[in-house]
Amino acid sequence: MMLKLKNVRFVNVTQRSADLPPIGARVEAQGLTSARGMFANGSKGRVVSHTPDGAVVEFPQPFGKMTLEAQNLRVMTDVAADTVSSASSSTIGDAPLPPVGATVEAHGLTSDRFVALNGVRGEVRKHQTQEDGRTLPLVEFPKPFGKMILKPKNARVVPAAIEEV
């Protein structure tokens, strides 16, 4: 009996894996253009496995596991990984830094001055490094709130599919 194979793509996994960051490497997503992916640009995660399609990277929520090609990953040097690690550990709950351009929703604010901002959406304009070394997002909210620096734990990323509602 002879089998005919149609539309089958053979992938040299060994060669493909050589281009990918090693399992366990700290990486940063870059150059992603899909609706879900563009919000992950700048997010840092760890390679957990390889597939024929790329490296499986575990990112903090809301992104979770994503399979990315080598060209969309920047391997972080030990110095960069240590900096990210210390910056994120200086925030309560190790909340990830939302990427520039992401739509975020303020939440968990308890002071009388800022409680009205809970539930309001804004856009991350840039990241600012504070005197204590922490990097925090500068978020532009609609009037009357304007631009504010939030702790990452108080800036929940809104997925693209939900933004249009």
SSE topology sketch:
Elements: H1 13-19, E1 26-29, E2 44-51, E3 54-58, E4 65-68, E5 73-75, H2 78-89, E6 103-106, E7 121-129, E8 135-140, E9 147-149, E10 155-157, H3 160-163
Antiparallel strand pairs: 1-2, 1-5, 2-3, 3-4, 6-7, 6-10, 7-8, 8-9
Question: Overview of this structure, please?
Answer:
Mean pLDDT is 77; it is low at 10-15 and 79-93. Strand 7 (121-129) and strand 8 (135-140) form a beta hairpin. The longest helix is centred in the middle third of the chain and has 12 residues, at 78-89. By secondary structure, this protein is α+β, with helices and mostly antiparallel strands. It has helices spanning 13-19, 78-89, 160-163; strands at 26-29, 44-51, 54-58, 65-68, 73-75, 103-106, 121-129, 135-140, 147-149, 155-157. The strands form two sheets. The protein has a five-stranded antiparallel sheet. The protein has a five-stranded antiparallel sheet with strand order 9-8-7-6-10, with no helix packed on it. Helix content is 14%, strand content 30%.
Summarize the structure.
It contains three helices and ten strands; from the N terminus they run αβββββαβββββα. It has helices spanning 13-19, 78-89, 160-163, and strands at 26-29, 44-51, 54-58, 65-68, 73-75, 103-106, 121-129, 135-140, 147-149, 155-157.
